[in-house]
Specification:
Elements lengths: L1 H17 L2 E4 L2 E4 L5 E5 L42 H8 L20 E3 L19 H19 L1 H10 L1 E5 L2 H5 L14 H22 L3 E5 L8 H6 L9 H24 L4 E5 L1 H10 L14 E2 L19 E2 L8 E3 L2 E2 L1 H13 L5 E3 L2 H6 L1
Parallel strand pairs: 3-4, 3-5, 5-6, 6-7
Antiparallel strand pairs: 1-2, 7-12, 8-9, 10-11
The structure holds 2-acetamido-2-deoxy-beta-D-glucopyranose (5 copies).
One 2-acetamido-2-deoxy-beta-D-glucopyranose binds next to helix 6.
Pfam families: Lipase_GDSL
Family: Belongs to the 'GDSL' lipolytic enzyme family.
GO molecular function: lipase activity
Length: 369
């Protein structure tokens, strides 16, 4: 008994010496605690769209979404966890819930997720059906007000300055013009569309910076033209990727990689990471077996060519859909989103990978920076 108690006190003493803590208001956390704030589209939406008035096309809250990990649909557009779920785990944070689950939720110590499936950097991308990037920024500002009230000015600022801001945006802005009967393709030049998207994104980055954000992580755009959705929409030789959208994606990725160093020289303390999802996806689509998949081009869930018709779960006008045996065999879960297994591979590389896939910082380094 004595010796047990001795060990207990010893342990408490040991822990308090080794792990310095920092108190934010009444809450004390390990000093290295870093929050994660998430903005963007369906690649990072963990369920915000469950709480808005939209069509089922932009929600992942029907079976078989979620089948592999959660065993029930959560609103994530995959069979399981997404990149931010894995990053939170690697950073010793709990799963970051959708902001709209508890808009008045009083902690936000670990971060918040504002992303919305289908959202773009342009307000007009699926206007009225999604939470666009500007509205996500407004939610972030509301949260910041609550955080200051809860923690105090200085502590809230400390948390926001140390935090990592993970952003996935642009996919929807470039998808939409290719939908049948889209009214969006009114830009005379592809450069014009890309410049607007990058311009809107830059405005949002600067706003987050003004509030305290310093450490930004961006998901570069994947090869959207090779997604099952785009292959299915394509006329003619459907085994090829859709080149027009690939051009846009490449223009966007180039513009993003040029604007971020500029922001770094303009904004004191600004640090960033870009994940090369283009390469990470392409490698797996072209060489699935090298990465433990049996199928790189056809989705697990959906209908039509490449299961590229977004009918997974019977959500859209097409009620019938096919579902593969084991999602882990596929790179894509539905017409436009990878499986948890693919996301896990991406997340591991984004966390601790080398500059050929994530740089200038990987996320492990960005969290510590
Ligand atoms: C949701 O949208 C539908 C169709 O657009 C509309 O009829 C309904 O009134 C909306 N509901 C709310 C709560 O806004
Ligand atoms: C974002 O893009 C839209 C076009 O959809 C434009 O009207 C809006 O002013 C832009 N917002 C910002 C903050 O640049
Ligand atoms: C597109 O427009 C054509 C002709 O106006 C119409 O027949 C078709 O149903 C529309 N498709 C969609 C997906 O709305
Ligand atoms: C279709 O596209 C694939 C992939 O780009 C190419 O290998 C094939 O030769 C094309 N087939 C035809 C008939 O053009
Ligand atoms: C699915 O495949 C993976 C390997 O790719 C395997 O580890 C897993 O057990 C399989 N799941 C089921 C339900 O068969």
């Amino acid at each position: 008994m004595m010796s047990l108690r001795f060990h207990f006190y010893f342990l408490v003493l040991f822990v308090s010496i080794v792990i310095p803590t920092q108190c934010l208001g009444e809450i004390c956390l390990p000093k290295e605690h870093v929050a994660l704030f998430i903005f963007g589209d369906s690649l990072v939406d963990v369920g915000n769209n469950n709480y808005i008035n939209t069509t089922t096309d932009y929600q992942g809250n029907v079976w078989p979404f979620g089948e592999s990990f959660f065993k029930y649909p959560t609103g994530r557009a995959s069979d399981g966890r997404l990149i931010p779920d894995f990053i939170a785990e690697y950073a010793n944070l709990p799963l970051i819930p959708p902001y709209l689950l508890h808009p008045g939720y009083n902690r936000y110590i670990d971060g918040a997720n504002f992303a919305s499936g289908g959202a773009g950097a342009l307000d007009e991308t699926r206007r009225g059906l999604v939470i666009n990037l500007n509205t996500q920024l407004n939610y972030f500002k509301n949260m910041e007000t609550m955080l200051r009230q809860k923690l105090g000015e200085k502590e809230a600022k400390t948390l926001l300055v140390k935090a990592v801001y993970l952003i996935s945006i642009g996919n929807s802005d470039y998808f939409v013009p290719y939908y049948p009967n889209s009214t969006v393709l009114q830009y005379s030049a592809q450069e014009e569309l890309v410049n607007m998207v990058i311009g809107n994104l830059t405005t949002v980055i600067k706003e987050i910076y003004k509030i305290g954000g310093r450490k930004f992580a961006f998901l570069g755009l994947p090869p959207l033209g090779c997604f099952p959705l785009m292959r299915a929409l394509k006329q003619g030789n459907t085994s090829a990727c859709m080149e027009d959208i690939t051009t846009l994606v490449k223009l966007h990725n180039k513009a993003l990689s040029e604007v971020l160093p500029k922001l770094q020289s303009e904004l004191k303390g600004f640090k960033y990471s870009i994940a090369d999802l283009y390469t990470l996806f392409s490698e797996r689509i072209d060489n699935p077996s090298k990465y433990g998949f049996t199928e790189g081009k056809i989705a697990c869930c959906g209908s039509g060519p490449f299961r590229g018709i977004p009918s997974c779960g019977g959500r859209s006008s097409v009620q019938e859909y096919e579902l593969c045996e084991n999602a882990s065999d596929h790179v894509f879960f539905d017409s436009a989103h990878p499986t948890e297994k693919a996301y896990q591979q991406f997340a591991e590389l984004i966390w601790s990978g080398t500059p050929d896939v994530i740089g200038p910082y990987n996320l492990k380094a960005l969290f510590k920076a």
